[in-house]
Amino acid sequence: MEYKEGDFLSVQHYVRYLIAEKLKANVRKIDEYVYYEVGELDEFFPVNFVLGKDSSTGKLFVMPVRRRCYIPDGFPEEAKAKLRRCMGFDYHAYEDFKFTRGIGIRLQGDLVMEVRDVFEDEREVLSFLSPSNFPDLFNSYVRERLKDDKEVAEVERLGSLYVELMDYVLRSTLPKEKERAVMRLLRKVEKELTSHFDFEVVNVYEKKRSVFHRSEKCIRFIDVQGALENFRRRKATREDFVDYVKSRTQSLAIKLGHYTTPHLIRLKGVLVNAEVNLAGVIMFSPQAVYLSHPEHGEEAYYVPKPSYVLFRLMGMEPELEAFLL
Predict the structure, then answer these.
(1) For 310, how many CA atoms within 13 A lie in the half-sphere containing its CB?
(2) DSSP strand pairing (104-108 vs 203-206)
(3) pLDDT tens, residue by residue, 137-167
(4) 85-to-32, 226, 239, 257 alpha-carbon distances in Å
(5) Which domain of life is it from (predicted)?
(6) Cβ-based neighbours of 250, under 8 Å, separated by 6 or more
(7) Which pLDDT score, from 0 to 100, does residue 211 have?
(8) Which residues on neighbouring strands pair with residue 221, listed in sequence order?
(9) Antiparallel, parallel or unpaired: β 263-275 and 278-283
(10) Cβ distance 283 to 94 under 8 Å?
């Protein structure tokens, strides 16, 4: 069946359809989708294509999926599940499924919610909060809660100075006697810096970066970045960090996608990170997530348990760790 431009969500999808028709080597109907494989004749073309009908508008869409996305023959349910995962989700929001860790739910249009973790109650959410699980939140915590700590300020200053001296030693081509003078200064800063640490500091060994010193021995330094990170974590108390994260709970209005046709997502929680096509949120309680889009209209999806979720756009096949951290 041939389609016209007006049958598609946009000219972009229509052009993809034309390319898929031009390059197709094999076309398969898999559940509600049509899967175009471009074949080995175009081995350097990076993607295959999926044709489907948008549930909100009834218009057709065509999206690329990675060439390495293998869809098995002869097993319809397995092929359906695999194709959906290649597209970036596991279930449509209107389907019946168990809300559990590790699934991707297509909410509206090309908007997907990845369920990173599910909790029974708020207490379980709080026990999950830690600097290692949420490094971005911890960095914000350090800047806001530890900025007035005098020892932290001193250690950060010494750490920056140590990195500067270390970089200077590794890049310089100074005569030996002048280089030794810089090294004496570096060791003095190192001694002062490590006096603040009540833990063992790891040593690292590096060669000078100049091509003229390839035969020289490695120079010992301390792992200053690792030491600073350890120091910050020891300065912070878990109770204070958890209190800080919870205090950031607010009503969120997140926009994802192209600025001319963005998805608007409204919910209550803690924003973990936000990019053009990505936003993580910690939800401390069950709630309705309200969705709005210029083309797909307004909808709501109920999240039945406290959760840590990631909103993103449907697209290339996600890596496994994007679902299961």
Answers:
(1) 23
(2) unpaired
(3) 998 998 898 888 999 999 999 999 999 999 9
(4) 14, 37, 38, 20
(5) Archaea
(6) 268, 269, 270
(7) 55
(8) 204
(9) antiparallel
(10) no
